[in-house]
Amino acid sequence: MISAVLFIPLFLGLCSLLFKNRIVNRIALLASPALYITIAIARWLGYTWHVLPDWLLAYFSFDSIGLFFFSVMAVVFAATSVYSLFYFKEHDLSIKQESIYVAEILFFVIAMTGVILATHLALLWVFVEATTLTSALLIYFEKKKSSLEAAWKYVYICSIGIALAFVGIILLSVGSKSIGSLFFNDLYARASEINPFWLKISFAFIFVGFGTKIGIAPIHAWLPDAHSEAPSPVSALLSGTLLNSAFLGLLRVQEIFNRAHSEQFSNFIFLLTGFLSLMVCAVFMLRIKNYKRMLAYSSIENMGILFIAVSLGKPGVFALLLHTLSHSFSKTALFLTSGNILHIYKSKKIENVQGLLQKDSRTGWLWIISSLSILGLPPFPAFISKFLIIKAFWLNGSSWLAIPFFLFLVVISFGMANAVFKMVYGKSQFEEENKFKLSSFAYLPQLVLLLVLLMIGINMPQQVFELINNAAGFFIN
Amino acid sequence: MTDFLIIFLGTSILYVFAVSRIEAFVKLLALQGFILFLLVIIDIREINWINIAFLSLETLVMKAVVIPYFLLTVIRKNEIGREVEPYITQFYSVLIACAIFFFGFIAAFWSAKIGAGIKPLYFGVSIVLIIASLFLIINRKRIITHILCYMMLENGIFLLSFSVANEMPMLVNIGVLLDLFVGIYLFVIFFNKIQSMFDGSHIDVLTELKD
Q: In angstroms, how far is CA A393 from the centroid of its own chain?
């Protein structure tokens, strides 16, 4: 099972590089997410099989929280792959470009899968760094001056950050000398033996490292640039899955603190940076000029919300996971729709986009509804998760924190809704006959994602509830 | 012998602060790689040939030969001579370097005192290497220097993991090396593109994106 998710996409990616054939590319691009979804469902149903040798198998596993993040990734991956077909067609990519794109996407996804499944802290690090390297060329895919700058900032800032995380891992290995292993299971089982001083100092480094990758303020500098300059399906993957997988890495480290009963320290850092991210986003959202950057800042905001949920401990866990899911799906829908807008208006500036509903009503509605979903209006699940977080503030006896939390959310919602409604209404400068209708691949993935979100928000299916609940069981207290 | 090598490694950092010729910096990186190789060879703790072979490959082949050679060809091809005027002048940089060294010594003494199974001298110098490269990244403007400083940071991390003497599994070591190599390769690709697309190759030209 694990070998299938790691090696089959690798094989398909190499095939598309090798054969440089449009049909092979499409098969590789569509078969991989299909495989991922199948395996996720098979795991939900409890099926499992092993091909890998035991020594290698020890390094990867599908635990409950890994399965949750894997499932979210599989869905986002499927949506972006389908949308990529539209991207290929509209951008008239040559066969060579197409093959490179497909191969890079697949390698990128494999690296993220490695992060999700790794059971060894240092191996997880290796895969996090690999995600940076595999996605850097994707950000520069359109070969513009601005995308080059974004790619450079991304690859350099993240590499330095991740290098610091490795320092943290080495320091942790000093503190856990008596354990003599960096496998998560060993660290969890004997967490109380880890020297608290080394644990805290290593956390500072690991937090900065993985936090850079997650794009948490104040180390978020690369995120708005990279997300706005990458091709839209890649932005969707970056925001919907890359941030999550690095976040999972940090969650696994945080769990060491929970087991060592010194979570107060790490929770405080999570809370502080979480609120800082909300503040940064609120400040920029009010004067935002570029709609793709707006979505990027919204990612920073949502990562901030996730960090706050982590800091709340057990009462916030369900909200944390539900919010992860709803952010990934809504943000993917938004980024993909932004690809449509970019295609229609050829501009990323908000002021240049007017009358979207007149011009292409489907894109306009998708844009509005996905924005409502990310802002957390009922009946979307982000509403439930934000509500649960506010409830968790109360349960933790820190109810006053709900006030700044709520205020920041209101400011951000105002800024974002303001931009969104400016874009969809207003007068279109184009004539009636210039109405756009893009191929159905440009609408279908977002529609499906929004329907899934609505289903979860209105009446959560038992399977999804169990998936989240099982994943929540990963946290001890 | 190892103490001598470590001190030599430490002084090489001071030299980096003092020179502004990029080629000298690359040669120094090669030298650092070679010293790391010698340390690996001298300091063999166990007779596990696969591990020794791998570490020699990493230090001698990669850090001392392949990557410096690769960087040197890039520099010669692009005819890059000197560092442009850094944000903080040479004199003050050297002063700051001294401060970093002082901090490194404190770290070394402290680590000897708490005795967590760390080699003090290794620990101190590795901390100096890491902080010094971060400082240089902030201070210098040329993109190629940033790549070199990243290499130096990686050397520091290598030495740190060596000072701790906890071995990582082979799979992780291979992954780390692969990441490093691909990373440098990618940096250079982007560096070349920036060189041709932008007007110049210092970070001051990267001003396309802002809010």
A: 25
The pair of three-digit structure tokens given for residue B25, joined into one six-digit string: 């910096």
Kindly report, residue by residue over A158-206, the tens digit of the pLDDT. 999 999 999 999 999 888 888 888 899 999 999 888 989 999 999 999 9
| Of the partner residues A133, A153, A182, the one whose CB lies closest to the CB of residue B183 | A133
Interface residue B186 vs chain A (CB under 8 A): yes
SS3 category, A59: coil
Secondary structure letter of residue B203 according to DSSP: G
Residue range A452-476: mean pLDDT, rounded:
92
The CA–CA distances, whole Å, from B151 to B10, B58, B70 equal 15, 13, 13
| B187–A140 C-beta distance less than 8 A | no
B161: closest CA of chain A, how far (Å): 6
pLDDT average, residue stretch B188-198:
86
Instruction: Evaluate whether A221 touches A149 at the Cβ level (below 8 Å).
Output: no
> How far, in Å, CA of A138 to CA of A232, rounded?
11
What's the rounded Cα separation, in Å, for the pair A174 and A180?
9
Indicate the burial class of A145 (C-beta count within 10 angstroms; 0-12, 13-18, 19 or more).
middle
Q: How far is CA A337 from the centre of its chain?
A: 17
Asked if residue B37 lies in contact with residue B58, where contact means CB atoms within 8 angstroms, the answer is: no
**Cβ contact A177–B208 (<8 Å):** no
Helix extents (H) in chain B: 2-18, 22-42, 49-56, 67-78, 90-114, 120-139, 143-164, 170-197
- What is the structure's pLDDT at A254? 93
- Of A340, A358, A319, A294, give the one whose Cα is nearest residue A447: A340
How many residues are there in chain B? 211
Instruction: Name the minimum distance, in Å, from the CA of B140 to any CA of chain A.
Output: 14
B51 vs A109: which has the higher pLDDT: A109
Does A144 have pLDDT greater than 60?
A: yes
CA A32 and chain centroid, separation: 18
A289–B175 C-beta distance less than 8 A: no
Contact B104, B14 (CB under 8 A): no
Instruction: Give B96-120 pLDDT, tens digit per residue.
Output: 999 999 999 999 998 888 877 788 8
> Would you say A170 and B157 are in contact if contact means Cβ atoms under 8 Å apart?
yes
